[in-house]
């Protein structure tokens, strides 16, 4: 698993207490439940310094920054977007990332679920391409292009 690791953050959104275990799991690419079990079993089996380490990590680690969408998508909306079918915006899955896990302790989706999500993503993208093709081949696009040439 040659994955480039980012920074270590607390993931308070995914965490139960402070998000330390969720942040560690995200950093190493593991499932959150596995890190929680390791920490709890470590404390129960005679490693109470893990409690001090958890509290220290709670205060030392920064919260995970929230992902924001780029301004290009919101500001530079193309003309064909106005002609899309209603209700497409609610189920937009084209920007989702799909991680497939190879082993049970790794973070991600089982292969069967990932295949389902990829199929759903391609259907969404195909709908967008069809809407774009429909607009580009319409008379309205031709008239708009001729007006812009003036």
Total number of beta strands: 0
Query: Roughly how much helix do the residues carry, as a percent range?
Result: 40-55%
N/C terminus separation: 57 Å
| Main β-sheet description | none
Mean pLDDT rating: 76
Pick out the low-confidence regions. 68-89
Transmembrane segments: 33-61
Pfam families: PspC
Domain Phage shock protein PspC N-terminal: 7-63
Membrane topology: Single-pass membrane protein
Which helices and strands occur, and which strands form pairs?
Layout: H1 20-28, H2 32-44, H3 49-60, H4 71-75, H5 111-136, H6 139-149
Descriptive account of the structure:
Helices cover 51% and strands 0% of the residues. Helix 1 packs across helix 2. It is mainly alpha-helical and 150 residues long. The longest helix is centred in the last third of the chain and has 26 residues. The relative contact order is 0.11. The chain is built from six helices and no strands.
Briefly summarize what is shown.
This protein is an all-alpha fold and 150 residues long. It has helices spanning 20-28, 32-44, 49-60, 71-75, 111-136, 139-149. The protein has six helices and no strands.
Write out key terms for the chains shown.
single chain; 150 residues; 2 domains; 6 helices
